[in-house]
Structure formats: structure tokens, C-alpha cells
Design brief:
395 residues, alpha+beta, Hydrophobic Seed Protein, two-stranded antiparallel ribbon, 11 strands, elongated, binds adenosine-5'-triphosphate, binds magnesium ion
Length: 395
């Protein structure tokens, strides 16, 4: 095996803790991703030092006590956040979610045994090399997600692992090992008791993975527990999703058949307002046919943020609709700086008041009427032309 290039922070933390007589390894996602040849998002470390020992070991750094009770602290090393966790051995799980007691351990073997999947249960040390007690490297090569230990027991300990199993399968383009797959289906009901925020995080990563379509098709019983609104999923929807860009509101919007269903599902999963609004407005837009004329696109831009219009066109492309004409027209509108909102209309409320229109609702209505005409191209966006039209036509 080739050595894994550690980040400067990970390398530093391992050496610092070792110089003080503790063990320390890179662990989990960063080892998995490095072995896959991808550069890790962040480096997690596991150590024999307890949280208070770590705090004194890094007393010359900024340390955030992220979850000291569970053994985790974050050290900021030259802006790189390093999550370092004491070796743990999880106790009994009373509620299928949280271990009742977190026991710190002195061995890395205990810590690797409590981890969810073989591909996530490898530790790496720059001199000692890879510690791979459960054949994670082999599963990584074969594209397999397999529970560490008995899948049924591991899912009963923490139901979220069911969704994590399919999340990693989707993200990495892997398959679930047979026993893991069987237990995931049988235990799917356990997801009912899991915090919605945790579900949302895994589900979003799954949807933005390499193979969400295969997973949605093969494991409907898992998604029915927390997202019944998206069923039944048609082959057409799966085909659209297959070609969809990696954008969360866009992908979400493809799955719901109505704004109401999307609203209640996204609210239940505690999606932020921005994601909810973007998704719902896309579902609404998908119901209206595309008008690729400049007038049609200016009308669209009047009511819809440019970013949403871009997403809408991307959705239409997933559905096999040709958007070349619309994109070219949009480009012209933007580069010419066409007026599509009151903020860039060449007359303001004050101009109208100066003309003798009484301040109040009427001013707003007249401005809107003028904007209508600028957008449909029957008046230019020029102050004189607009005021003249007002005077002569009594808009
Ligand atoms: P990503 O790159 O998506 O963050 P990751 O592997 O780092 O992937 P995390 O959710 O950040 O995933 O978890 C970090 C590590 O902690 C995992 O690799 C795994 O070893 C362990 N882990 C996380 N959640 C669980 C869980 N519910 N049960 C057991 N082990 C877990
Ligand atoms: Mg991670």
C-alpha cells in the first residue's frame, strides 16, 4: 500500500500527541477517501488521550470543546479544523440512537469495532501504516458497504446506520453486502425514531451521490419510512434524476408531484427556508411550459430570481427539453441589461408624484403597468418615453 499523504494538521497532531506518550491515528472518512484516491474533506483523528489530556496537549492552540462529553475536541491548526476523539467503546444503546454510556478505551481496536462500516473502520498512522481489522480495504476495492459485526444488531443500536449504509452506497457508487442489505430492509422501521435533522443530512448526501436512482429503486422500504410523499417513483422520474446536476433543490424538485407534498415533507425534515423555497418554486415552474421568447423570459425573470431560472432550465434539460433558444435569449437579456424589475425601471415613484399622481397605492399600480409595457417591449426603458406615454395615454 502506498503511504497516505496526511494533511499538515493531521501530521502535526499525531506527532504532538505521540511525543507526549499517547497513540493517535487518522480514522474513518479521511482514510477511506485517501485509499480511493480522493482528497478528504476533513481529517478526523482518534487517540488514547482523554479530552482533558488533549486540551492540555494543545494548550497553545485554539481548541473548541465540540463534544468533550463524547470525547471529541476540535483543534484549529493554521485554520484547519482537526476533530480529535478519544478511543471509544460504546455501551448499551437504550433508544436505538444514542449509546447510554460512552466509555473511553485505551485501544484503537475498540474504537474501530464501534464504527459503522468496514470501509469507515480503518485507521492510518504514518509509520505503523493501515490498521484494517475488518477487511475494509477489500470491501473498498470490491465496492461493498458491510456493517462491522452483525448488521441486525448494529442497526438496532443506531437506526441511522440504515440510512448511512445506503447513503455511502449512493455516494460511492457501491452495493450493500447481502446481510447488510437484508438487515437494512428488515430494520427500516427503526428510522421512524431517529431525529429528523440527522435523517436530512444523510438523505441529502444520498440524493447528491453517484447512484441515488439505483438506491431509490432497490430500497424503497427505507425511504417510505421518512419520505412517503415521493412514492410511487416512476421510471420517468428516475431517468430525470439520473441526468440531473448535483444541486439539492433541483434534485429534490424532481421527486415531488405537488408543491403541497414537497412543503410538508421538507418542513418535516427540517430543511432550511431557502432550500424549501427554491424546491417548491421549481416544482411550480415545472408545471408551466417554457416560453423561449425574450418577452416570455423577461416575464419569467420579473417574478423569479435569475438563479432559479437557471435551475428551471437545467430541470427542463434533464427532461430532454431543448433549452438552447431560451439560453441564448436569456444571455441577450442579461448582457443588454434589460429592465425586468421596478428597481431598474427608468422612472420612480417620485417622478410620478411630481407629475401629480397622489402618493399611495396608485403610484405602485402605475409603476407596475409601466414595467409591464417595458417588459413586453411596447415601451423603451427611458424616462422621457415613459413619462410621455403616461401623459398622453393616462396609463
Ligand atoms: P463524509 O466524508 O461524508 O463526512 P465520513 O466517513 O467522515 O464521511 P461522518 O458522518 O463524518 O462520515 O462520520 C465519521 C466517522 O465516524 C465514520 O467514518 C464512521 O467511522 C464513524 N461514524 C459516524 N457515524 C456513525 C454511526 N452512526 N455509527 C457508527 N460509526 C459512525
Ligand atoms: Mg466526515
Amino acid at each position: 500500500m502506498k503511504p497516505i499523504p496526511l494533511s499538515p494538521g493531521a501530521d502535526f497532531a499525531i506527532r504532538r500527541l505521540e511525543s507526549l506518550g499517547y497513540e493517535c491515528y487518522a480514522v474513518g472518512g479521511c482514510v477511506r477517501d485517501s485509499l480511493l484516491g480522493k482528497s478528504p474533506n476533513d481529517w478526523d483523528l482518534t487517540t488514547s488521550a482523554t479530552p482533558s489530556e488533549m486540551i492540555s496537549a494543545f494548550s497553545d492552540f485554539r481548541v473548541i470543546e465540540t463534544g468533550a462529553k463524547h470525547g471529541t475536541i476540535t483543534v484549529l491548526y493554521q485554520k484547519e479544523p482537526l476533530e480529535i476523539t478519544t478511543f471509544r467503546k460504546d455501551g448499551a444503546y437504550a433508544d436505538h440512537r444514542h449509546p447510554t454510556v460512552v466509555t473511553f478505551s485505551k485501544t484503537v481496536e475498540d474504537d474501530l469495532s464501534r464504527r459503522d462500516f468496514t470501509v469507515n473502520a480503518m485507521a492510518y498512522h504514518p509509520e505503523k501504516g493501515l490498521i484494517d481489522l475488518f477487511d475494509g480495504q477489500k470491501d473498498l476495492k470490491n465496492g461493498v458497504i458491510r456493517c462491522v459485526g452483525n448488521a441486525d444488531i448494529r442497526f438496532h443500536e443506531d437506526g441511522l446506520r440504515i440510512l448511512r449504509a445506503v447513503r455511502f452506497a449512493s455516494a460511492l457508487g457501491f452495493e450493500l453486502e447481502e446481510n447488510t442489505a437484508h438487515a437494512a430492509r428488515n430494520c427500516a422501521f427503526l428510522l421512524d425514531g431517529i431525529a429528523k435533522e440527522r435523517i436530512r443530512i444523510e438523505w441529502s448526501k444520498l440524493l447528491l451521490g453517484k447512484k441515488p436512482t439505483v438506491i431509490l429503486q432497490n430500497y424503497p422500504e427505507i425511504f417510505l419510512v421518512f419520505l412517503p410523499e415521493i412514492f410511487p417513483i416512476t421510471q420517468r422520474t428516475l431517468d430525470f434524476l439520473e441526468h440531473a446536476p448535483l444541486d439539492l433543490p433541483l434534485r429534490l424538485s424532481l421527486l415531488f408531484d405537488s408543491e403541497e407534498n414537497a412543503k410538508s415533507a421538507l418542513l418535516r425534515l427540517r430543511y432550511d427556508n431557502d432550500t424549501q423555497e427554491k424546491t417548491v418554486s421549481l416544482i411550480k415552474l415545472q408545471k408551466t411550459p417554457l416560453d423561449s421568447t425574450e418577452v416570455g423570459l423577461r416575464r419569467l425573470l420579473r417574478n423569479t430570481p435569475a438563479e432559479t431560472v437557471d435551475r428551471y432550465l437545467a430541470v427542463l434539460e434533464c427532461k430532454g427539453i431543448d433549452t438552447h433558444t431560451a439560453k441564448a435569449a436569456l444571455q441577450t437579456i442579461v448582457s443588454r441589461g434589460d429592465c425586468v424589475s421596478l428597481s431598474t425601471l427608468a422612472v420612480s415613484g417620485n417622478d410620478l408624484i411630481a407629475l401629480g399622481i397622489p402618493a399611495g397605492k396608485r403610484v405602485g399600480a402605475v409603476l407596475e403597468a409601466l414595467l409591464d409595457r417595458v417588459i413586453d417591449g411596447s415601451l423603451p426603458n427611458e424616462k422621457n418615453a415613459l413619462l410621455t406615454a403616461l401623459k398622453t395615454e393616462k396609463t
